[in-house]
Amino acid sequence: MTLASAPAATESCNSFIPPSFDVNKVEIISDRPDCATFIFTDEDHTLGNALHYVLMKNPKVDFSGYSIPHPSDNRMNLRIQTKSNITAQESLLQGLTDIKDISRHIFETFNNALDQ
């Protein structure tokens, strides 16, 4: 299953993902709603570490971890386990939104400092 075809994520996913992003580059391997592995194609430690960081700041997330299976493999595996009141897909979407908000804040702060 891909992120685009995931039933719980489709509507909320489309609200913030830029049109240029290929949602088919994320494959979902789900054991249960609260526990899933997401396989990102063409992503590396940059996104993996950032997602892991923001996910672990979320009190509804019990576990987050990522791995790059092999340096020559262009995949990043992200495992998320949540508490029962939120799904792994919802926490991933929240994490991506948090990264977007943090990036926007850094960009605006940097530009404001340049203007002074």
Distance between the termini: 49 Å
How many H/I helices? 3
Helix/strand order, N-terminal first: HEEHEEH
Characterize the overall form: globular
Could you give a short account of the major beta sheet?
4 strands, antiparallel
Gyration radius, to the nearest Å?
A: 15 Å
Query: For the largest beta sheet, what order do the strands appear in spatially?
Result: 1-2-4-3
SS strand fraction: 25-35%
Q: What structural class results from the helix and strand content?
A: alpha+beta
CATH topology: Gyrase A, domain 2
Main location: nucleus
Keywords: DNA-directed RNA polymerase, Nucleus, Transcription
Subunit structure: Component of the RNA polymerase I (Pol I) and RNA polymerase III (Pol III) complexes consisting of 14 and 17 subunits, respectively.
Pfam family, one: RNA_pol_L_2
Give a brief rundown of this model.
Belongs to the archaeal Rpo11/eukaryotic RPB11/RPC19 RNA polymerase subunit family. This protein has helices at residues 10-14, 45-57, 88-115, and strands at 26-32, 35-41, 61-67, 75-82. The protein has 116 residues and is of the alpha+beta class.
Explain how this protein is built.
It comes from Dictyostelium discoideum (Social amoeba). This is DNA-directed RNA polymerases I and III subunit rpc19. There is one protein chain. This protein is an alpha+beta fold. The chain has one domain (10-115): Gyrase A, domain 2 (2-Layer Sandwich), CATH 3.30.1360. The protein is 40% helix and 25% strand. It has three helices and four strands; from the N terminus they run αββαββα. The protein has helices at 10-14, 45-57, 88-115, and strands spanning 26-32, 35-41, 61-67, 75-82. It has a four-stranded antiparallel beta sheet with strand order 1-2-4-3, covered by helices on one side. Helix 2 packs across helix 3. The radius of gyration is 15 Å and the shape is globular. The N and C termini lie far apart (49 Å).
